[in-house]
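Team,

Forwarding the record for the chain on the shared tracking sheet. I've put the sequence and predicted structure together so nobody has to dig through attachments.
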Amino acid sequence: MRALGRIVGIAVAAAVVMVALAVVTPASAQQQTTLSARAVPSSGPAGGTFQVEWTIAYPARACTTMYLSWAYGEYEQPRTDLSGAFSVPVPREAEQGTHPISLHCYNAKSGTRFTVRGVIPTTTNPPVTTTTRPPVTTTTRPPVVTRPPVTTTTPPVTTTTTTAPPTTTTTPPTTTDTPTTTATTADEPDDGGLTLDRETIQPGDPLSASGEGCEPYATVRLTSKGETVGETTADAEGAFTAAVEFTRVEPGRHMVVAECGVVLTGSVDQLVTSSTGGGSTALVVLVFFVLAGAAMIRFA
């Protein structure tokens, strides 16, 4: 019985020791500081940026600042939480390949890697700013100066009508036709940047306008004399092509204006074939012969 009691006592003592070790060992293991880090993304081009995310477990009280260093700079940030992230720029002159990154906070250390692959291109944006702004100042203001000549074309109309009445009646129709054509052409501004696929059109003819220099993907609105005659969207290079449809039939030159962040202009002549022109000419000739016959009878 004594031997059995000793065996039971030894077993109980061993169990108590094992339980004590099981309690003490995890507690001591949980106090160990661990720091981990990773690059997000793990690779990218020179000229860009990437993130270094870190997490820390059981940090020491002295771990108040997180430090990061790699081949192209050193950074630091206050540690106020158990996780955080650095935003790391990649210089354009960075060498292609994998670069080590190290982090530490007091006695905790960790590391990761970032691979530089390629370079972000920088030659796409400058052409947009240099080609779009000059046309705004050069093509819109000069047309305002061309309007005064309209008043100089009207005096010849009055002089031709005063000299013609005694002899011939055919001259007034010819002189009345000319002011309409000169007035429409003088009132319109010069072309600037907008290309039309036809120089002249008749009612029903298709017409398209094209240009470039707009903001990428900008809405292009085509107008003529204040009325909308077409609309489209510029492509990634700022170019466009759109159909032009006039809502009114008016003979003469028509100015088409494209607005897309810049202003482009172009002109087209609209021709209208009149079916009554021959009849009016015949009437004038008939009146002429009647007057001539009356004059001959009178002097006879």
